[in-house]
Amino acid sequence: MSNTAQTLDLTAVDAYLSANLPGYQGPLVADKFATGQSNPTFLLKTPTRNYVLRRKPPGVLLKSAHAVDREFRVQRALADSEVPVAKMHLLCEDDAIIGSSFYIMDHLDGRNFSEPTMPDESNETRTAVIDEMNRVLAALHMVDIDAIGLSDYGPPGNYFERQIGRWSKQYRASETDKVPEMDQLIEALQSNMPVDDGQRTLVHGDYRIDNMMFEKDGTKCLGILDWELSTIGHPYADLAAVIMQWQMPVGNEGRGMAGINRVALGLPSDAEFIAKYCERRSLNGIENFGFYLSFNFFRMAAIIQGVLKRALDGNASNPERAMTLGQYVPVFAKRGLEALDM
């Protein structure tokens, strides 16, 4: 494994921040976050304030993957919108500094829920947090992309056609073993593509509760994290991503809500969450939701196949977890096929 995926050249980072970040004062200490499979992420501690450094992993990478420059751009553009994001400070695209490009942002001093069931919280907190998650998602999809300078953030055309093509190529590029279910799913998605309804919004691409930071003692969202997969696309992809996550097993591994009594825990049903989202966006419901759900199972299977490939190549941020995740490729593919029959 490449050691630079786990450590930082603090001398180089300190020198760069001293020269480029107004108000920065060392000494500097860095701790690597355990989460963040794709782009290694570090908490930078100084005597006066904390920052976060997020970098491309070292080594040979798939084309268009790990685009930290895009993450920086979209969060900076959302700074004055209704969508909560961390403050962006610096983007460094000079690989000579620490071995790969990186950006610096504020550290959000809040709390993160790894599971949507929030086992240590009250029913009132669970209800409020999930509703806030719904509110922020609707706000994201109502952002005026022209007004914030992101109209060129994604190509025109059918988002799902584009994404299925992209992730099919990414999957083939990182394929390690034949997965028949994945081959079937790719073909099924291509043949069940809905007609483009013209919706074109900013999409996060990996919208889940564990990619959000909330107030330490409240339920307000302080910021959405991990924008690597963001683009201009179709909003139902993000909405279906939430529902897909909830269909996973309960617990730290699946981080879902399969089989639980949601009413008893103050949690909404899938239908209630979708209905509230539609209400916030003044929509009359969503047809063919099974396709959007299937698409998300497919994309997640392709993503974790890439994580597995990086682990085998020695470039994974968390190699042990990457190997574990890799076993789920056929599981996600099978669930994608089942979703198309909804």
TrEMBL record:
GO terms for molecular function: transferase activity. It holds the Pfam family APH. Residues 33-254 form the Aminoglycoside phosphotransferase domain. Keywords: Transferase. SUPFAM superfamilies: Protein kinase-like (PK-like). InterPro entries: ACAD10-like, ACAD10_11_N, Aminoglycoside_PTrfase, Kinase-like_dom_sf. The keyword DNA-binding does not apply. The keyword Transferase applies. This is Phosphotransferase family protein. It comes from Phaeobacter gallaeciensis. The lineage of its organism: Bacteria, Pseudomonadati, Pseudomonadota, Alphaproteobacteria, Rhodobacterales.
